[in-house]
Amino acid sequence: xxxxxxxxKKQDVSIVLCGQAGQGVQTVEHLVTRILKAAGYHVFAxxxxxxxxRGGANSTTIRVCGRRVAAPVSRxxxxxxxxxxxVAHVAERLSPETxxxxxxxxxxxxxxxSHRFLAVPFxxxxxxxxxxxxxxxxxxxxxxxxxxxxxxxxxAYVRRFFAKKTDDIVANNVKAVQAxxxxxxxxxxxxxxxxxxxxxxxxxxxxxxSGAEAVGxxxxxxxxxxxxxxxxxxxxxxxxxLAQHGLEQGVLAExxxxxxxxxxxxxxxxxxxxxxxxxxxxxxxxxxxxxxxLAGMLECPVVIHLAQRxxxxxxxxxxxxxxxxxxxxxxxxxxxxxxxxAPGTLEQAFYLTQRAFxxxxxxxxxxxxxxxxxxxxxxxxxxxxxxxxxKAERHIVKTTxxxxxxxxxxxxxxxxxxxxxxxxxVAVDSDEHDEEGHITEDLNVRVAMVDKRLAKGEAxxxxxxxxxxxxxxxxxxxxxxxGSTYHIVREAxxxxxxxxxxxxxxxxxxxxHPSTADLIRKARRTVVVEGNATGQFRKLIRLHxxxxxxxxxxxxxxxxxxxxxxxxxxxxxxxx
Length: 576
Description:
Layout lengths: L1 H8 L2 E10 L3 H14 L3 E7 L6 E11 L12 E4 L4 H4 L9 E4 L1 H4 L1 H6 L1 E4 L2 H8 L5 H13 L3 H11 L5 H19 L21 E4 H11 L4 E4 L6 H14 L2 E4 L3 H13 L4 E6 H17 L4 E6 L16 H6 L8 E3 L4 H18 L3 E6 H5 L1 E4 L60 H19 L6 E3 L6 E6 L3 H11 L4 E6 L1 E3 L5 H6 L3 E6 L5 H10 L5 E4 L8 H12 L2
Parallel strand pairs: 1-4, 4-5, 5-6, 8-9, 8-10, 10-11, 11-13, 12-13, 16-17, 16-19, 19-20
Antiparallel strand pairs: 1-3, 2-3, 2-14, 7-14, 12-18, 15-17
Helix pairs in contact: 2-7, 2-8, 6-7, 6-9, 7-9, 8-9, 10-11, 10-15, 12-13, 18-21
């Protein structure tokens, strides 16, 4: 692993910030990533944090590269601990190459003696300037100095960031970042920390988005004009994003009194013709399952964003996992079709969310966007979206007097009308109903209606997203993954350099693409990488594609995979 670390340093630097909740870790993260991007460097950031408003230990990993990067690594080149206990919190990631930057009192004598340490008295410098509150900006200056960034550019960004504050506050923050930068300049900095790869001027103009923002923008592109939710981490960021931009984008955002109300509001809005979104997490979605079944019976095109986190019950509310796949797949009593997307990149989060609205509308079924805390809270720079690929497709008809909401059709999709648009009555019923939407207990009608709803499953398969195959076409080994592990697995395989191994990523996990069985059978050995304990996607493949995957590489400790996790796991599996 030491050789891997040294090789990686030539391409990127990994910076870890660690401190208490409320201490300003996010401010340091925001400033450092934006300053680096403005300087032309590719950046990626992700975080792990405890479920508390104050205290605890939270960390953010920032990678800065001369090439595109979108995956976390365990390696720490620079660790900036901001409180006592921070070093212990990330101790498993420490190596002899890690440089600790900060206050001796915070780091502790043992770690000062046993690791490479640069003493920068953040608190004392900040107090001399105007108060401890400026210590996090001192840390920003120290990081900028270590990386060899242009001080004038750093100062200029800090001025812009605090521009809405008073002149005194702006001036003190400028002094703080300069003082941190100068403090590092007086130290004997180890080799290998300054950025030697060339920046690209084009990077400065690229987008820097989180997964939550990508999902929110995808919803807007899909024509979403109503979102209802009861706040629940990690899904809340999607609700707040749409609420912040609702007025300008024509989205009505409603914070419901509970999750049951939220899903029923969305169903009611969709019945009236809105493009409705619900955003929630596992425990909240558990309360929505009766509403999901209602959407199935009403043939209602509602989109549900399910941001996964570890359960059961409250579990680890601010951590990540891919353990709600089966929950989404089987949620709701009775039998009815649905669509499950699982984006693995920010681009997929945008395009698939937009696609979910179109397909839900077209097929009149619930459509799911499965993300997780890792994807929602991670971000990186990229070129942006091609809006010419997005179009909100409407499938609503103007009703006539003889309109029948549930008219029997060959493909199971009835013409969808909405109240007030035409002369017909748009009757819906949560009980079994006839073609006009009126309650019935005619058993022959019951069979016809069940067959009608299930017939949509065949139509849905015509719109399935094909899994992405990356690597050699004539592969002997196949690594299968889904959702947020896309970039992690891809970088791990590139690092391993195996010419006989390909990666197969699923961004739609149900219905499965019909090519699945052939792609898997082609390999001599197969493994699924997923963030749960029981191999839920592996089981789904067995059930719906009729093939077995040989091995599973799973993780369920509440933290996402890193590149090293996948490299080590696949190497161990390969050596069995």
